[in-house]
Amino acid sequence: MSTPTLAPLTLATMTTVEAAAAVTASPLVILPAGALEQHGTGLPLGTDTVRAEHVAQLVAQRLDGGAVIGPTIPVGVSPHHMGFAGTVTLTTSTFATLVREYVDSLHAHGWRRFLVITGHGGNGAALSTVAQDLLTARPDVEFAWTPLTPLAAGVVADMAVSEVHGHSGEAETAQMLALAPHLVHPDRLTAGTTRRAELDPLSALARRPGAPNLTVRYDRLAPTGVLGDPRRATATDGLAIVEAIVEAITAFATDWLKT
User: Fold this and answer.
1) Could you tell me which of 216, 181, 194, 183 has the C-alpha nearest to residue 83?
2) d(C-alpha 79, C-alpha 91), whole Å
């Protein structure tokens, strides 16, 4: 008796025959996008990519064959992290071109629905541009994109986060403890900027809630590149954050596939 196998979720593991069948059977393509940038002393440079890929897998599993996972975009728009070793960045135009050419290639084979799951907030502006351009360049394409942690704002609000928190802080570290604990170095986790009083006037302005967007480099925001105190993070909190994210994306995609 042969052992039953699950249908592959990723294009990379499919044959071309399976990919051709998936155009109809799995009409939604999920594209994980991340970054290769500093995440303090205790998290890997690929943190955003790791989180995006894990969430993409979890969402695809819950969609039960309705989606396939396309190729990852592992480097993002990260000029604000270039003050730290190991960071690699794309320009917004290069990143947008990569997304467009992924979509163009898969569009040629028949896919029309695309969802980019980005673990890196710096990719958002370029993704919005791609979405606008596709409305005229490919009017038959439906293109959506989503960040990760903002979808779990309620869970994060219930955590004991610092006054200043965010990059490599409590919420992001918690997700990595839940999804890829082998990549976290707990003994190296250190607090970064945790209070507004620690910020210089321009940085404080950039971090003011509800204000216009002002971009500054992370080596100005925090000497360690960390906002918050990752030592407070727990895998339990991370699991709750990831579950909220996956539930939100899955609910959206389920309704989308019904339209």
Assistant:
1) 216
2) 8
> Among 57, 79, 76, 78, which residue's Cα sits nearest to residue 68?
57
Residue 118: CB partners within 8 Å, gap ≥ 6? 32, 33, 34, 48, 52, 76, 124, 127, 145, 146, 147, 148
20 domain-assigned: yes
Sequence-ordered list of residues with C-beta below 8 angstroms from that of 229, at least 6 positions apart, any chain: 162, 165, 169, 170, 191, 192, 194
Interatomic CA distance for residues 29 and 39, integer angstroms: 28
The one-digit pLDDT tens for each residue of the chain (259 residues) are 333 344 568 999 999 999 999 999 999 999 999 999 999 999 999 999 999 999 999 999 999 999 999 999 999 999 999 999 999 999 999 999 999 999 999 999 999 999 999 999 999 999 999 999 999 999 999 999 999 999 999 999 999 899 999 999 999 999 999 999 999 999 999 999 999 999 999 999 999 989 999 999 999 999 999 999 999 999 999 999 999 999 999 999 999 999 9
Residue keyed to tokens 């699991």: 239
> Is there a contact between 7 and 65 (Cβ–Cβ < 8 Å)?
yes
Half-sphere exposure of residue 250: CA atoms within 13 angstroms, side-chain side:
17
Coil, strand, or helix at residue 185? coil
Chain center to CA of 252: 16
The domain of 236 spans: 11-251
**Residue 107 located in a structural domain:** yes
In a domain, 258, yes or no: no
* CA angle (220 as vertex; 215, 226 as ends), nearest 5: 95
For the chain, the domain total comes to 1
